[in-house]
Amino acid sequence: MKKTLQISLGLLLAAIACAPAWSDDRVRLKAGNEYPGKLVETSPTKVTLEIGATRREFDVNAIETVQFDAEPTELTQARAFVRSGRYVDAGRMLAKVTPTEMRRMEIARDVEFYRSLAAARHSLAGGSSIANAGKMMFNFVRANANSYHYFEACEVLGDLLAALENYAAAESYYGKVAAAPWPEYKLKAAVLMGRAQVGQKKYEAALERFDSVLSSREDSDEAKEHKAAARLGKASALAGSGRSEEAVALIDDIIAQADPKDEALHARAYNLLGSCHQAAGQTQPAILAYLHVDLLYSRFPELHAEALSNLVKLFEADNKASRADEARRMLKDKYPNSSWASK
Hints:
The protein is of the alpha+beta class. 65% of the residues lie in helices and 9% in strands.
């Protein structure tokens, strides 16, 4: 009996020793639920866990995070840093991950993605080279077509290309996001593609794109946000095509109706309003519009840099040299790598 017990115990220990090291991966959903299991498959749309004797698929758009068994603590912390906007801290944390800790392919891919994402977000905020961040994200997208990060990576790569004013390439990557099966992703991609078309001066095509979003029957909170962004996009296309009065009227209406909590939309709207007044030679209304962004919405680096860049020109045109110098210093100090700093 004792010998049998020893043999059974030995077999159990051997089984544990041979068990996969990743049997306790975890999928955490945006709804708050968390599921432990073994990650067996990923795609741009699904993550599949083996939970006991069954397999369960999770839609990527419902996932908050995927955490791997025995992953480096630096990776776990870096994810949290990225979510809270601490991109430099995330990059520093990921730089500490050693090759030995990335022997598992899924961990190595996640480290690469979050390195690229942290670099991209930091560069879009004017803190580092957009071109270098673009190369990193391009390499990730090219090598990881089956990653559950794929659609997010394509969107961010599109943002980087748009920041470099390569709008045609940006539109192409936003188009990959439009291939996602979820309505909200399609609406967001359409808004981004419309913006890229405005950048290419394809105003009629952009108007059609924005109108397609506005005519959608989707009415979730997220869909409503994309529709609000589409209205603003439509205003930018109207302004670009010379219909400034229509654009200003639409922007005023957007600002009046927008959710006060949607500060990014307000910042975009005031920048566009400033641009319309600036194009019409209306210096004071343009200054007032851009000052809204400087004073109220400076937490959006790219939009703040745009406002500061235009304020420099407007203050100079208005013979306010000291205020122009002040705006220029702030632009150079806060956003040295922003494309707006060199305009």
